[in-house]
């Protein structure tokens, strides 16, 4: 049972009058207060499919009590911390997050398929003032609540939930005072009986790519699950699930760069049939009517849609996802692979919240030093450390 203050009246989510009050709050655009702590933490009412749910406002998870389902670990334990106030600025009054991107949503000249990698070959720019394409993907996943898991949800998270939560998260973000949702396309779950209507909605959404107004051509963002890459006459076609008949074109030189840059992700995805490969790309419309990739980034997620970047995280999550205790998967955002972050956090662990760290193979002394400083800075948390490549996974006796 959770208690909220809705339009000035306290209400529990298991009472008969809760849903009518929630419906009225949605119509009034009123902000419920979560009564987990103090005078309450502002939240908002969202429509996920046909259901109304109370969701936390962007970047307010740390304001909730650690026992509250809306609680999130401190942002300085992941790559999100350095971005706060620079690449990501929270408007508390509007309940939105303004984003600064290091890639463009427009392009001068022909919108050909000359895609570039979202990051250099072996590293990520540690720029706290702007979000890379991968950083944006991580932020969308984070704000959608898709980094959280408990065994109670086993078998209950599918693309339907992923789609709706990503859509809702995008509505709370803006880029240059424009809602991110207006430039982001996430394919809706495909249903054969609604094929014509779904394709019509997609065509309407993509019409922005083919407008002939003077000036730079608008680009859009596509976020979806990769089904496969298939050969084209001079390049590759990126086949996205839930978009039958649609092909996203990638030039051959861009495909070779993609293979080099995301070799780890492609190998990880290929080695586990239950994993999903998520792509985020800026795309443009070619005069021929072909939709082409301008820039692309990839991320591998588990069967539960939890992000992973190597087999060590995969092994750890395989164990943790069987627990009924809530876990939160950490994300790297713009941190380089030479910098530590909390790979997983167990916020309900007692007597202290537990942060789990993986030291990768080949980590040098500077990594170990940074990790010690990170652990020492959080005396309110306990730590579990696995030095992968040097030892077997330590026992998970919690």
Can you tell me the overall shape?
A: globular
Structural class: alpha+beta
Helix content: 10-25%
Number of helical stretches of at least 4 residues:
8
* Number of extended strands: 24
Q: Round the Cα radius of gyration to an integer and report it.
A: 21 Å
Biggest sheet strand line-up: 2-1-3-4-5
Summary keywords:
single chain, globular, 398 residues, five-stranded antiparallel sheet, alpha+beta, 8 helices, five-stranded mixed β-barrel
Provide an overview of this structure.
The chain is α+β, with helices and mostly antiparallel strands and 398 residues long. 22% of the residues lie in helices and 28% in strands. The chain has helices spanning 18-28, 133-143, 159-171, 195-206, 252-261, 263-270, 311-320, 365-376, and strands spanning 3-6, 9-12, 33-34, 41-48, 51-56, 88-91, 96-99, 106-107, 116-117, 148-149, 173-175, 178-179, 184-185, 217-218, 220-232, 235-240, 248-251, 276-285, 291-301, 307-308, 327-329, 344-346, 353-359, 381-387. A 5-stranded antiparallel β-sheet has the order 2-1-3-4-5. A 5-stranded mixed beta barrel has the order 15-16-17-19-18. The chain is globular. The two termini are 25 Å apart.
């Amino acid at each position: 049972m959770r208690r909220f203050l809705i339009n000035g009246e306290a209400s529990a989510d298991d009472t008969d009058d809760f849903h009518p009050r929630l419906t009225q709050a949605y119509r009034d655009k009123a902000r419920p207060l979560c009564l987990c702590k103090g005078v309450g933490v502002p939240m908002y009412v969202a429509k996920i499919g046909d259901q109304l749910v109370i969701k936390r406002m962007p970047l307010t998870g740390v304001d909730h009590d650690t026992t509250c389902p809306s609680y999130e670990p401190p942002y300085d334990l992941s790559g999100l911390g350095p971005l706060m106030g620079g690449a990501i600025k929270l408007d508390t009054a509007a309940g939105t997050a303004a984003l600064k991107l290091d890639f463009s949503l427009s392009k001068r000249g022909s919108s050909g398929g000359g895609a570039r990698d979202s990051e250099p070959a072996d590293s990520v720019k540690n720029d706290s003032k702007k979000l890379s394409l991968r950083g944006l993907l991580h932020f969308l996943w984070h704000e959608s609540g898709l980094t959280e898991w408990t065994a109670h949800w086993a078998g209950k998270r599918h693309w339907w939930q992923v789609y709706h939560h990503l859509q809702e998260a995008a509505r709370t973000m803006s880029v240059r005072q424009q809602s991110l949702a207006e430039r982001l396309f996430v394919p809706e779950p495909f249903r054969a009986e609604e094929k014509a209507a779904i394709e019509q909605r997609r065509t309407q959404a993509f019409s922005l790519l083919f407008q002939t107004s003077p000036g730079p051509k608008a680009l859009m963002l596509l976020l979806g699950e990769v089904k496969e890459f298939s050969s084209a006459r001079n390049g590759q076609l990126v086949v996205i699930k839930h978009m039958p008949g649609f092909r996203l074109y990638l030039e051959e030189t861009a495909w070779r760069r993609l293979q080099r840059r995301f070799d780890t992700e492609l190998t990880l995805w290929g080695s586990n049939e239950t994993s999903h490969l998520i792509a985020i790309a800026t795309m443009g419309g070619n005069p021929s009517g072909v939709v082409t990739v301008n820039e692309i980034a990839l991320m591998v997620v588990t069967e539960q849609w939890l992000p992973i970047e190597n087999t060590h995280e995969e092994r750890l999550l395989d164990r943790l996802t069987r627990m009924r205790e809530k876990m939160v998967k950490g994300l790297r955002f713009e941190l380089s692979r030479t910098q530590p972050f909390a790979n997983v956090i167990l916020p309900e662990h007692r007597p202290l919240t537990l942060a789990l760290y993986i030291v990768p193979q080949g980590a040098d002394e500077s990594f170990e030093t940074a990790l010690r400083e990170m652990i020492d800075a959080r005396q309110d948390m306990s730590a579990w450390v696995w030095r992968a490549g040097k030892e077997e996974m330590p026992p998970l006796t919690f």
